């Protein structure tokens, strides 16, 4: 079966004060269907830069990124937007929920953008939120939810369009340890249940070991760290 993600020779450099900094140096990475991979590394190691590249959120990269069989470099802006919308889901350290929308509406919106009917989108949203233990919070706005609950809504939103690949950048980094453990467990359970693959950036070795495979970003290159 084809890989959901195949990155080959990915490089990214920045110039600051006349000095060139190589953040990514020939990164190679594959993620198979349904596989959850931890991207481990300290803050500033380039994890977010790699996720931005894979998420087609930023240009200036050299190398190849294939998502669900499509080569991103061959796509124009509209094509990258379509691929990002149809094949990817995103979870960030900070939930970035729309403050004027309730939990259900935050999960409905990306589906409607992808032309789902309102009825189907609402059913899907309520199903995901209920699976995450938020069945009693469907009509609450973000300001009425705890940090852990807000991040659960963000997880549901990321999975709303049944993406082939979920990208998560320190998804529990803004939570206390106990809440982080609970949210990560629910995230992993739901992603596996949905059959999506995931690439999860974290600096937490303990959390990384809960995933199927661990790769470590070191001096701009990826190294296989360990299995689950």
TrEMBL record:
Signal peptide: none annotated. Its EC number is 3.6.3.-. SMART domains: AAA (SM00382). Transmembrane segments: none annotated. The keyword Protease does not apply. It holds the Pfam family ABC_tran. One of its GO terms (molecular function) is ATP binding. CDD domains: ABC_MJ0796_LolCDE_FtsE. InterPro entries: AAA+_ATPase, ABC_transporter-like_ATP-bd, ABC_transporter-like_CS, ABC_transpr_LolD-like, MacB-like_ATP-bd, P-loop_NTPase. Residues 5-228 form the ABC transporter domain. One of its GO terms (cellular component) is membrane protein complex. Keywords: ATP-binding, Cell inner membrane, Cell membrane, Hydrolase, Lipoprotein, Membrane, Nucleotide-binding, Transport. It comes from the Bacteria. One of its GO terms (biological process) is lipoprotein localization to outer membrane. It is an enzyme of class 3 (hydrolase). Belongs to the ABC transporter superfamily. Macrolide exporter (TC 3.A.1.122) family. This is Lipoprotein-releasing system ATP-binding protein. It comes from Sphingobium scionense. The lineage of its organism: Bacteria, Pseudomonadati, Pseudomonadota, Alphaproteobacteria, Sphingomonadales.
């Amino acid at each position: 079966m084809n890989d959901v993600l195949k990155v080959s020779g990915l490089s990214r450099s920045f110039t600051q004060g006349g000095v060139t900094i190589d953040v990514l140096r020939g990164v190679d990475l594959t993620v198979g269907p349904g596989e959850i991979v931890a991207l481990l590394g300290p803050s500033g190691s380039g994890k977010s830069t790699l996720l931005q590249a894979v998420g087609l959120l930023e240009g200036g990269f050299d190398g190849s990124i294939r998502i669900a069989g499509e080569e991103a470099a061959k796509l124009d802006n509209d094509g990258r937007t379509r691929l990002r919308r149809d094949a990817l889901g995103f979870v960030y350290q900070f939930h970035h929920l729309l403050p004027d929308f309730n939990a259900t509406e935050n999960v409905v919106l990306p589906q409607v953008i992808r032309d789902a009917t309102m009825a189907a989108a609402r059913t899907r949203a309520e199903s995901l939120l209920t699976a995450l233990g938020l069945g009693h919070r469907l009509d609450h706005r973000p300001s009425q939810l705890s940090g852990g609950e807000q991040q659960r809504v963000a997880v549901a939103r990321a999975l709303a369009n049944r993406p082939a690949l979920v990208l998560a950048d320190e998804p529990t980094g803004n939570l206390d340890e106990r809440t982080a453990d609970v949210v990560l467990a629910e995230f992993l359970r739901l992603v596996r249940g949905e059959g999506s693959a995931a690439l999860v950036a974290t600096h937490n070795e303990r959390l990384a070991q809960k995933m199927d495979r661990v790769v470590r970003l070191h001096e701009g290159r990826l190294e296989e760290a360990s299995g689950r």
